[in-house]
From TrEMBL:
<feature type="transmembrane region" description="Helical">
    <location>
        <begin position="26"/>
        <end position="46"/>
    </location>
</feature>
<dbReference type="GO" id="GO:0042907">
    <property type="term" value="F:xanthine transmembrane transporter activity"/>
</dbReference>
<comment type="similarity">
    <text>Belongs to the nucleobase:cation symporter-2 (NCS2) (TC 2.A.40) family.</text>
</comment>
<dbReference type="InterPro" id="IPR006043">
    <property type="entry name" value="NCS2"/>
</dbReference>
<keyword id="KW-0472">Membrane</keyword>
<dbReference type="GO" id="GO:0005886">
    <property type="term" value="C:plasma membrane"/>
</dbReference>
<protein>
    <submittedName>
        <fullName>Uracil-xanthine permease</fullName>
    </submittedName>
</protein>
<keyword id="KW-0812">Transmembrane</keyword>
<dbReference type="Pfam" id="PF00860">
    <property type="entry name" value="Xan_ur_permease"/>
</dbReference>
<keyword id="KW-0813">Transport</keyword>
<keyword id="KW-1133">Transmembrane helix</keyword>
Length: 78
């Protein structure tokens, strides 16, 4: 079953790739860039809440939560 699922999943990009060139005329870099930027901007609130410990955290925005959230972003910026 796993082999079959992987086989079908591998066919999806092959089929979709046939329609990329015509779609490039519709979805210009301005449109795709704007959509990606808006998605990122809309996720800022969610990421800040999770970074501070989550909505139900008793110690919301404590230094331990902020330090724990800062560690991966600090490591990825190296």
């Amino acid at each position: 079953m796993l082999f079959g699922v992987n086989f079908v999943a591998a066919l999806v990009p092959v089929i979709v790739s046939r329609f990329i060139e015509p779609l490039k005329k519709i979805f210009t870099p301005i449109i795709t860039g704007s959509v990606i930027a808006l998605i990122g901007i809309s996720l800022i609130k969610v990421s800040v809440i999770n970074w501070c410990g989550g909505e139900k955290a008793e110690d919301f925005a404590s230094m331990s939560n902020i330090a724990l959230g800062r560690a991966p972003s600090g490591l990825s910026s190296c």
